[in-house]
Write a structure and sequence with these properties.
The protein is an all-alpha fold. It folds into two domains: 53 residues, no CATH class; 63 residues, Up-down Bundle (AhpD-like). The chain has six helices and no strands. Helix 4 packs parallel to helix 6.
C-alpha cells in the first residue's frame, strides 16, 4: 500500500511523543507504525480510552488496563500501565488488587470453557 506523506508526518509525531513519554517505542507501535493508515486510528483510540475525557479518572483507567493486561497475559502492557498508574497516584496495593482481579477473571474464563466441556463429556446436568 502506498503511504500518504501527511499520514507519515502524523505517525512520526505520535512516535516521537511516545518516545518522550516512555523513553522508548513499544514493539506494537514500531510494527503498526509501518502502516500509518492503521497506526493513527489505533493510537487515537488508545489515547482516548486511557487518557481522554470520561467518567473514570486516569488512575482508575490505568488500574483497569492493568487488570485487563493481567487477564490477557500482556507482560509488556502490564509494565507500561503500572508505571502510568503509579504516576496517576495508584498505590502498590491498588495495583496488586487490579492484578488479582484480572488473574481471577482469566481463571474463571478458563473454568467456564473447561467445565462446560467436562459437563458435556460426562453428562453433568447444568441449570440454565
Amino acid at each position: 500500500m502506498e503511504e500518504k506523506p501527511e499520514q507519515r508526518e502524523i505517525t512520526d509525531k505520535i512516535l516521537a511523543a511516545i518516545k518522550r513519554e516512555y523513553g522508548f517505542i513499544p514493539v506494537v507501535n514500531q510494527v503498526l507504525s509501518t502502516r500509518p493508515d492503521m497506526f493513527i486510528p489505533a493510537s487515537n483510540m488508545g489515547k482516548a480510552v486511557l487518557e481522554g475525557d470520561g467518567d473514570l479518572d486516569k488512575k482508575t483507567r490505568y488500574l483497569c488496563a492493568i487488570s485487563a493486561a493481567s487477564a490477557a497475559g500482556g507482560e509488556y502492557c502490564i509494565n507500561v500501565q503500572m508505571r502510568h498508574a503509579v504516576d496517576a497516584g495508584a498505590t502498590k496495593d491498588e495495583i496488586l488488587e487490579a492484578i488479582m482481579i484480572g488473574c481471577y477473571m482469566s481463571m474463571t474464563r478458563a473454568q467456564s470453557y473447561a467445565f462446560r466441556k467436562y459437563a458435556e463429556m460426562f453428562d453433568v446436568g447444568l441449570e440454565q
